[in-house]
């Protein structure tokens, strides 16, 4: 949302979806409070999750009163807190600094893939409520989504080369790997191109439907990536 123009998109979009983030971060806070210690997460994870709840609420109120500067600042803060929480919850037992850097970039790249796809889908849905808005913000998100997927493919390819050189794998691993690439990278990339072409018509309703499917594919791909990366040297 911080990459979406508040001049071209109505303020209700930012307000409503900050409230969605408030709900998500509330559930995250409750989960960390209940199970965080048993799972080995530090107190910082819970603290930042609670901070995300507060900042999301402040941001939503700012958009109610049309304060775009504070509203955009709160959105950027929510993004920083979310990424920081993910980094705190990551297992950093690896000693190789290259691995640490790779995992950090992987977290950022994964977040961008899911975040851009979901925000584009939400924005496409918002065009159904406000059809007079310009299409430039949605096109920009779809373009950035495609770039994030290309980076995801590059990062995953590098990790895959290392993994194949160091281990042999059974058939189920190969099936999961194929699903991860077909769903979360190639499939989502095809849908990004389809969305771009649909917006040239333009038809925002059909583009939004395509983005719904892209959200599902990216979620499945990233979840499969986490399972594949659990015992690997680098995230796949």
Q: So what's the overall shape?
A: globular
Q: What is the alpha-carbon Rg in Å?
A: 19 Å
Count of helical stretches: 7
Number of domains: 2
Q: Give the strand content.
A: under 5%
Q: Describe it for me?
A:
It is a single chain. By secondary structure, the protein is mainly α. It has two domains: 1-89; 94-236. It is built from seven helices and no strands. The protein has helices spanning 11-35, 43-64, 68-88, 97-129, 136-166, 171-199, 204-229. Helix 4 packs antiparallel against helix 7 (204-229) and helix 5 packs antiparallel against helix 6 (171-199). It is globular.
Summarize the structure.
The protein is an all-alpha fold and 236 residues long. The protein has helices spanning 11-35, 43-64, 68-88, 97-129, 136-166, 171-199, 204-229.
Give me some keywords for this one.
0% strand, 236 residues, 79% helix, mainly alpha
Task: Describe the secondary structure blueprint for this structure.
Blueprint (H helix, E strand, L loop, with lengths): L10 H25 L7 H22 L3 H21 L8 H33 L6 H31 L4 H29 L4 H26 L7
């Amino acid at each position: 949302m911080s990459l979406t123009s508040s001049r071209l998109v109505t303020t209700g979009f930012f307000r409503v979806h900050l409230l969605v983030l408030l709900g998500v971060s509330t559930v995250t806070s409750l989960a960390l409070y209940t199970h965080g210690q048993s799972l080995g997460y530090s107190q910082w994870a819970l603290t930042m999750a609670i901070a995300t709840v507060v900042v999301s609420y402040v941001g939503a109120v700012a958009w109610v009163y049309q304060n775009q500067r504070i509203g955009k600042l709160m959105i950027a803060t929510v993004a920083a807190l979310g990424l920081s929480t993910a980094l705190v919850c990551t297992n950093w037992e690896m000693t190789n600094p290259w691995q640490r850097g790779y995992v950090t970039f992987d977290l950022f790249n994964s977040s961008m893939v899911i975040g851009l796809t979901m925000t584009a889908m939400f924005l496409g849905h918002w065009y159904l409520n406000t059809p007079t808005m310009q299409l430039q913000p949605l096109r920009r998100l779809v373009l950035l989504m495609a770039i994030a997927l290309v980076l995801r493919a590059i990062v995953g390819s590098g990790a895959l080369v290392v993994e194949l050189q160091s281990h042999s794998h059974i058939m189920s691993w190969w099936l999961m790997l194929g699903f991860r690439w077909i769903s979360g990278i190639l499939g989502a990339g095809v849908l990004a191109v389809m969305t771009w072409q649909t917006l040239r018509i333009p038809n925002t309703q059909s583009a939004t439907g395509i983005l719904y499917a892209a959200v599902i594919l990216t979620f499945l791909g990233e979840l499969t990536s986490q399972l594949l990366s659990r015992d690997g040297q680098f995230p796949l």
